[in-house]
Amino acid sequence: MNKNRFYIFIIVGLLISNLLLAGFMMMNKPPQHLGPRNLIIERLHFNEKQIRQYDALIGYHRMQISGKEHDLMNLKSQYYSLLRSGNRQKENSLVDKIGKTNMEMEKINFKHFQDIKRICRPDQVPYFDHLINDFESLFAPGSRRPHE
Fold first, then answer.
1. Rounded CA gap, 10 and 58, in Å?
2. DSSP 8-state symbol, 29
3. CB-based contacts of 144: which residues, under 8 Å, 6+ apart?
4. Which residues in 132-141 are b (16+ Cβ under 10 Å) and which e?
5. Which pTM was predicted?
6. Phi, psi (deg, nearest 5) at residue 92
7. Over its length of 148 residues, how does the chain's per-residue pLDDT go in tens digits?
8. Percentage helix, strand, coil, to 5, in the chain?
9. 8 A C-beta contact, residue 57 and residue 37
10. Nearest-angstrom CA–CA distance, 92 and 42
C-alpha cells in the first residue's frame, strides 16, 4: 500500500506541474504578429469587398512567389553543387539565372502592390502612399516578408 501511495503522489504531482506549466504558457503567450495582410487591410481601411479582392490577390501572389522560390532553391542547389564537382564552366550561367529569378520575384512583388493600389478607392490612395513610404521599416529583414 505504501508503494501505491508513492506512485499516486508522483502522478498527482506530475499532473499538477503539467497544469501549472500549461497555465503559465497560456498566460505568457507572446502577442501575435498581425502580419502583412492584416496590417495592409488596417492601414488602407479596406471594406469587406476590398478584403475579398485582396485575399484573391494574396492567393495568386503566393502561388507565383512559391514557384519562383522553388526555382531559386533548385538553381542555388545546382550552383553550390559546383563546389563538389569543380565544374566552373556552369558557374556564370547559374549566377545569371539566380539573378534573373530574383529579379522576376521583385517584379511579382511590385505588380502585387500595383494590384493592391488598384483596389483602393481614391480616398484610400493617400493611405497607400503612406504605406509605401513606410516600406523599409514594415518589411525590413527580421519582420515578416511582403509576400502578402
1. 51
2. P
3. 33, 35, 36
4. eeeeeebbee
5. 0.68
6. -65, -40
7. 677 787 787 887 777 877 777 777 777 655 554 578 898 999 999 999 999 999 999 999 999 999 999 999 999 999 999 888 877 778 889 999 999 999 999 999 999 999 999 999 999 999 999 998 887 776 666 554 444 4
8. 80, 0, 20
9. no
10. 44
70: cell is 522553388
On the CB side of 70, CA atoms within 13 Å amount to 6
Residue 14's pLDDT is what? 76
Distance, first Cα to last Cα, the chain: 63
Cα(14)–Cα(113) distance, integer angstroms: 52
Cell 556552369 identifies what position? 90
Cα–Cα distance measured from residue 58 to residue 53, given in angstroms and rounded to the nearest whole number: 9
How would you class 106 by CB atoms within 10 Å of its CB: exposed for 0-12, middle for 13-18, buried for 19 or more? exposed
Q: Which residue type occupies 101?
A: T
